[in-house]
């Protein structure tokens, strides 16, 4: 028998023992219990006939049991797959006994510690895969002994140091056969050692996302004739290729993001026509896009030249590209938007100088479009009605342009737009009402919209807050600020969006009425900005239910949970869309992107709110900015403010607050902006801690009965001391104390100096160690200066 399926066997080890001629055993994803493994050695089970064993995707968490089980296997085993088995340390020591192994796959486990050098004893090994473990330390010199190794994957571990350790000392290999080397997503540093360039059979080299540096020249790549994939992304490498260089290879995958290869556009890419993946983003290129580039990219599926300073017009040059993802964002392209092939799914042209309208991209032919980012350009005109038919659209970002007119009125609840997750039309000249199709196919039912981010701020939309938003149960960011919206804030916002909404911004509209109590149902809310409206009534006491704002410190786990949350459900091919939101903090409007998960802001300023400050607001101890200025609030400032330790900005100005400033405000050690002006406050301004650094008198202006620094002194503080005989004696005593202080300092210095010198005089070993240390530091300084000088010269040569 050559093969068998033992998925439902209760004791599969015993079952295998009864099959003496079995050569191939595959039990992947079989929910195998680990207990039979423990009895394997005790039963003297010898699976001598098995050459291929696949136990992948089972759960054998006890590595010790696995180690004992491997002892029962014959040395004739050729292929062993224990990937995705949830195995922990220690690393199986018995592997070294499997001397006939050719293929070993231990990927996606939880092995910790260093990589054992004993792996070098598996001289027949051709493939070793340790992807996604927790191995760390230096990579030992196993390559010196594994002469037959063709496939080596150590990606996604925590290896450190330079790569030279992998091949050092004497080797018994006459020739290396390595074809695939993947060391990506580690912490390797230093330059690439020479042995890499001597691996003439390499077809795949992936060193991405490490901390490697140094220069790679065309001469080093001269012998790599079989190379098909070159991935060096996420390092600090410099590619110094001559303009006339013709590579000896033809690459399919060119992944060189953040490698310095400018300022000229790399001409050697012209010889690589037919590649299917190109990423030369953030490469320091300052050049015109060459005319040959579209022809060389004809077969590319993924094309990324973003974050450079590439110039030129591309209005017709992309029509014949078959790429599904094109990213040319953050460059200096100008002219009209390019015509695209209908196969394009993601087009990212944001942060350029494109002008004209959006019809070259948003037209009826582009039915495969999924992600469109055209933000931060000079685009104008209206949004074409063809957008209603783009049924695959998940993300559209036209923000920061000059687009005007009304949003097209698609058929109500158009099912073709049900895939929309992100809509960003902020900072344009759009007008009219907000159409209901943005929420997708949500008629009068309990169906949920897929919409996660809706940003329409800084336009001229009018009418009431659209009722379709009640169906957006996955909404994370809702920004309707800086428009002309009227009416009340509907209570259903707090009821329909309660589970997910983190950012609610409606500032600078014409909203009226009271703040609905239902807003307090938004327990995940981190930013609430209702400033510059016409809201009235009291601040709801129920705001204490903003659970996210009561978290004093955001932990790393909180941030990870946020990143993995609803706002990132859409997988955007190039990961270029960022949640960019504007929040007014410390009197200035600031933009937050990747740090949005850390922001906690409550801004109700510039309204007609009345009543006293609710004590419950002080329960929001995670708040970083609280702005209640320019309202009609009255009463005292609660002493509980002292418990808001994270507060960096507090603005209560232009209200009718009275009484004393509570001393607890001095306990706000993070406070860097304070404004209490134009109230009816009285008494002495508290002192101590952070509040003493806020020395601008204007922050207390308009409170006629306030006194103390930085305002004029309070009554009773002006009495100067009258010199008396006693006072004079005290002054003399003070002078005497100062003399004794200086005398003590001088004596201490002399004694300390001679203690150190005496130790060096009488302790020879100390003296030698000290001077060696200084010699070593001098050598390091000279070496560092030499390296710095070489870098300056290289940079200068690069510019030339």
Q: What would you note in describing this structure?
A:
The longest helix has 38 residues, at 725-762. It contains 9 helices and 49 strands. The strands form 5 sheets. The protein has a 26-stranded parallel beta sheet, with no helix packed on it. It has an 11-stranded parallel beta sheet with strand order 28-30-32-34-36-38-42-44-46-48-49, with no helix packed on it. The chain has a 6-stranded parallel beta sheet with strand order 6-8-10-12-14-16, with no helix packed on it. The model is unreliable at 442-446, 555-576, 720-738, 771-776 and 778-800 (pLDDT under 50). The chain has a domain at 453-707: Leucine-rich repeat, LRR (right-handed beta-alpha superhelix) (Alpha-Beta Horseshoe), CATH 3.80.10. With 800 residues, the chain is α/β, with parallel strands linked by helices.
List keywords for this structure.
9 helices, alpha/beta, 11-stranded parallel β-sheet, 800 residues, Leu-rich_rpt, globular, 26-stranded parallel β-sheet, leucine-rich repeat, Leucine-rich repeat, LRR (right-handed beta-alpha superhelix)
Residue stretches low in confidence (pLDDT < 50, at least 5 long) are 442-446, 555-576, 720-738, 771-776, 778-800
Helix fraction? Answer: 10-25%
User: What is the name of the CATH class of the domain at 453-707?
Assistant: Alpha Beta
CATH architecture of the domain at 453-707: Alpha-Beta Horseshoe
Please compute the radius of gyration using only Cα atoms.
35 Å
Subcellular location: Cell membrane
InterPro entries: Leu-rich_rpt, Leu-rich_rpt_typical-subtyp, LRR_dom_sf, RLP23-like
Region (Disordered): 712-732
Membrane topology: Single-pass type I membrane protein
């Amino acid at each position: 028998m050559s093969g068998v399926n033992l998925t439902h066997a209760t004791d599969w080890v015993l079952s295998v023992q009864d099959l003496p001629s079995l050569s191939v055993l595959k039990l992947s994803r079989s929910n195998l219990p680990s207990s039979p493994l423990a009895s394997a050695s005790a039963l003297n089970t010898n699976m001598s006939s098995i050459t291929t064993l696949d136990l992948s995707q089972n759960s054998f968490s006890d590595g010790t049991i696995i180690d004992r089980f491997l002892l029962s296997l014959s040395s004739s085993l050729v292929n062993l797959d224990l990937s995705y088995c949830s195995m922990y340390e220690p690393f199986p020591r018995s592997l070294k006994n499997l001397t006939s192994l050719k293929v070993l796959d231990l990927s996606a486990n939880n092995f910790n510690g260093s990589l054992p050098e004993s792996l070098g004893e598996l001289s027949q090994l051709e493939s070793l895969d340790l992807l996604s473990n927790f191995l760390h330390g230096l990579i030992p010199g196993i390559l010196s002994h594994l002469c037959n190794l063709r496939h080596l994957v150590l990606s996604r571990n925590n290896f450190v140091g330079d790569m030279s350790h992998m091949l050092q000392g004497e080797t018994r290999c006459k020739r290396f056969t390595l074809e695939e080397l993947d060391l990506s997503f580690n912490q390797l540093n230093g330059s690439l050692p020479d042995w890499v360039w001597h691996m003439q059979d390499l077809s795949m080299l992936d060193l991405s996302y490490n901390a490697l540096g140094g220069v790679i020249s065309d001469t080093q790549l001269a012998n790599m004739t079989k190379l098909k994939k070159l991935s060096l992304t996420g390092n600090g490498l410099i590619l110094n290729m001559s303009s006339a260089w013709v590579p000896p290879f033809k690459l399919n995958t060119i992944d060189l993001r953040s490698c310095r290869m400018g300022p000229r556009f790399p001409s050697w890419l012209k010889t690589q026509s037919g590649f299917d993946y190109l990423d030369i983003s953030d490469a320091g290129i300052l050049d015109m896009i060459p005319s040959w580039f579209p022809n060389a990219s004809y077969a590319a599926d993924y094309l990324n030249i973003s974050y450079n300073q590439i110039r030129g017009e591309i209005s017709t040059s992309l029509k014949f590209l078959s790429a599904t993802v094109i990213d040319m964002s953050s460059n200096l392209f100008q002219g009209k938007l390019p015509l695209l092939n209908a196969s394009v799914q993601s087009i990212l042209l944001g942060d350029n100088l494109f002008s004209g309208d959006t019809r070259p991209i948003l037209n009826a032919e582009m039915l495969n479009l999924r992600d469109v980012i055209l933000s931060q350009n000079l685009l104008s005109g209206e949004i074409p009605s063809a957008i209603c038919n783009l049924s695959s659209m998940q993300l559209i970002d036209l923000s920061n342009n000059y687009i005007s007119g009304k949003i097209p009125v698609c058929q109500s609840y158009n099912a073709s737009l049900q895939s929309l997750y992100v809509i960003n039309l902020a900072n344009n000249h759009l007008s009219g009402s907000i159409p209901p199709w943005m929420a997708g196919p949500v008629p009068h039912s309990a169906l949920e919209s897929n919409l996660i981010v809706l940003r329409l701020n800084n336009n001229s939309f009018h009418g009431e807050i659209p009722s379709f938003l009640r169906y957006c149960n996955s909404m994370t960011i809702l920004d309707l600020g800086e428009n002309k919206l009227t009416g009340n804030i509907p209570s259903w916002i707090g009821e329909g969006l309660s589970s997910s909404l983190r950012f609610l911004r409606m500032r600078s509209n014409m909203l009226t009425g009271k703040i609905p109590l239902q807003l307090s149902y938004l327990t995940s809310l981190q930013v609430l900005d209702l400033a510059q409206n016409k809201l009235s009534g009291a601040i709801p006491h129920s705001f204490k239910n903003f659970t996210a704002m009561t978290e004093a410190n955001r932990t790393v786990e909180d941030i990870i949970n946020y990143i993995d949350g609803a706002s990132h459900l859409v997988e955007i091919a190039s990961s270029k869309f960022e949640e960019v939101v504007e929040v007014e903090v410390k009197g200035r409007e600031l933009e937050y992107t990747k740090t949005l998960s850390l922001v906690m802001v409550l801004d109700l300023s510039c309204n007609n709110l009345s009543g006293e400050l609710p004590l419950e607001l002080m329960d929001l101890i995670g708040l970083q900015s609280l702005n209640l200025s320019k309202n009609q609030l009255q009463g005292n400032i609660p002493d509980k403010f002292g418990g808001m330790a994270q507060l960096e900005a507090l603005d209560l100005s232009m209200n009718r607050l009275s009484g004393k400033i509570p001393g607890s405000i001095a306990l706000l050690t993070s406070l860097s902006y304070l404004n209490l002006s134009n109230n009816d406050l009285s008494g002495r301004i508290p002192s101590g801690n952070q509040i003493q650094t806020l020395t601008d008198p204007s922050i207390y202006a308009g409170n006629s009965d306030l006194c103390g620094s930085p305002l004029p002194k309070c009554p009773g503080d002006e009495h100067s001391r009258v010199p008396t005989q006693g006072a004079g004696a005290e002054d003399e005593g003070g002078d005497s104390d100062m003399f004794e202080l200086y005398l003590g300092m001088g004596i201490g210095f002399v004694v300390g100096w001679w203690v150190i010198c005496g130790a060096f005089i009488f302790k020879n070993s100390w003296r030698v160690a000290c001077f060696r240390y200084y010699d070593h530091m001098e050598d390091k300084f000279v070496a560092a200066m030499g390296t710095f000088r070489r870098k300056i010269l290289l940079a200068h040569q690069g510019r030339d």
